[in-house]
Design goal:
The chain is α/β, with parallel strands linked by helices. It has one domain: Deoxyribonuclease I, Chain A. The chain is 19% helix and 25% strand. It is built from 6 helices and 14 strands. The strands form 2 sheets. It has a 7-stranded mixed beta sheet with strand order 1-6-7-8-9-12-10. It has a 7-stranded mixed beta sheet with strand order 4-5-3-2-14-13-11. Helix 2 crosses helix 3. The radius of gyration is 19 Å and the shape is globular. 43% of the residues are buried.
Length: 307
C-alpha cells in the first residue's frame, strides 16, 4: 500500500517511484511567494513560524494475542494520540488495517504515507501528518540493503527487511516553509545491519537540500550515547533533540515490553534534527489507561522551531 486516500486526493503531491530510489536534490522545486512590504517600502518582517510537534512511535504490530492484542490496545492508542495531537508522527511496525484504524481515530484532519516493507509482512514506516498544518510535496521509500530500490530486499543479515520512508513537507501555516522528515526502524538483531543501514541513510540524506530542516525519527534498536550506531548518526551532523532541548521531561527506557517503566532507562527511540532547529521541549509520553499501554514502546516527542 503506497499511500492512503488522504494523500492521493491531494493535488501537488509528486510521488517518487520506488524504482527511482536515487533521491533528488529536494530544493529543486521549493516554492517562493512574493515579498511583502510595509507602507514605507521596507520589507515586512517574515511571520513567526509556529512550533511543530513531532512524535516517533513504535506502534507494536497488530497482534491478536492477549492481553496486549490490537483490539485491546486500540482505545488506549486513540486516547494517547488524541491528547497529544502531534503535527507529524513517524511510526514503526504498523500494518495497513491498524494504520487505517489509527487514521480513523485521529479524525478527519490526519492522513498518512507508507508502504509495506515486503518480505512476508506488510509492516511499514508510516508517517502520519495533520493536514491542517502540513502538505506533502514529495515522498519516497528505500530499503536498507545493497539493493535499496528492491522491495523486501535484505542483504546485510538483518532479521527482517528494513526500510526508510521520507517526506518533504510544506508547512501551510508558515508561509510554505518546507522541511524533510525521514522515518526508519533499524534491525533488532544484527549490529552489522544497523551500521550498514546508518551508512546508507547518511549517504541519502547528504543529497537532501542542505538549506531545508531535516527531522529523523525512528526505533533504532541502539541505546543513545552507548552504541556506535548512535555515534555514527551524530557524526553525520545530526543532533539529538533529547540533549539539545531547552526543556526536557523525565527520561524513561523507551522499550518497556508492557512491564514496569524504567526511569533513566535505555533510550532506543530518538528524534534527531539538523543543527539550526530549535528544540523547545522533549519528553517521553508515559500515557496509560486503566493500567494498559498502547504499545510495548513509549512514544518520544519534541516541540521544534524550524524557522
Amino acid at each position: 500500500m503506497a499511500v492512503t486516500r488522504g494523500t492521493t486526493r491531494r493535488t501537488g503531491l509528486r510521488t517518487v517511484a520506488a524504482a527511482a530510489v536515487a533521491i533528488p536534490v529536494l530544493g529543486a522545486v521549493r516554492s517562493s511567494g512574493p515579498r511583502t512590504r510595509e507602507a514605507s517600502g521596507r520589507p515586512r518582517p517574515a511571520p513567526a513560524v509556529p512550533p511543530l510537534d513531532v512524535m516517533t512511535f513504535n506502534l507494536r504490530f497488530p497482534s491478536t494475542a492477549e492481553p496486549h492484542s490490537w483490539p485491546t490496545r486500540r482505545p488506549v492508542m486513540r486516547a494517547l494520540l488524541r491528547a497529544a495531537a502531534p503535527h507529524v508522527i513517524g511510526t514503526q511496525e504498523g500494518e495497513p488495517p491498524q494504520l487505517r484504524d489509527i487514521e480513523a481515530d485521529l479524525g478527519p484532519h490526519y492522513a498518512w504515507i507508507g508502504r509495506g516493507r515486503g518480505g512476508g509482512d506488510e509492516e511499514s514506516m508510516a508517517v502520519f501528518y495533520d493536514t491542517r498544518r502540513l502538505e506533502p510535496v514529495e515522498h519516497a521509500h528505500f530499503w536498507l540493503s545493497d539493493t535499496p530500490a528492491v522491495r523486501g530486499s535484505n542483504t546485510w543479515g538483518a532479521a527482517y527487511p528494513r526500510m526508510v520512508t521520507w517526506v518533504r513537507f510544506r508547512d501551510v501555516t508558515a508561509g510554505g516553509r518546507e522541511f524533510c522528515l525521514l522515518n526508519t526502524h533499524l534491525d533488532n538483531e544484527s549490529q552489522y545491519a544497523r551500521l550498514r543501514s546508518v551508512s546508507l541513510i547518511a549517504a541519502r540524506t547528504a543529497r537532501f537540500d542542505p538549506s531545508l530542516p531535516l527531522v529523523v525519527t525512528g526505533d533504532f534498536n541502539a541505546v543513545a550515547h552507548r552504541d556506535p550506531v548512535y555515534d555514527a548518526l551524530l557524526a553525520t551532523g545530526l543532533v539529538d533533540t533529547w540533549d539539545t532541548a531547552r526543556r526536557r521531561g523525565a527520561g524513561y527506557g523507551t522499550y518497556h515490553g508492557y512491564r514496569e517503566l524504567t526511569p533513566g532507562g535505555a533510550r532506543i527511540d530518538w528524534i534527531l534534527v539538523r543543527p539550526g532547529v530549535t528544540v523547545h521541549r522533549a519528553w517521553v509520553d508515559t500515557f496509560s489507561l486503566d493500567g494498559r499501554f498502547p504499545s510495548d514502546h513509549l512514544p518520544v516527542c519534541a516541540t521544534l522551531g524550524l524557522g
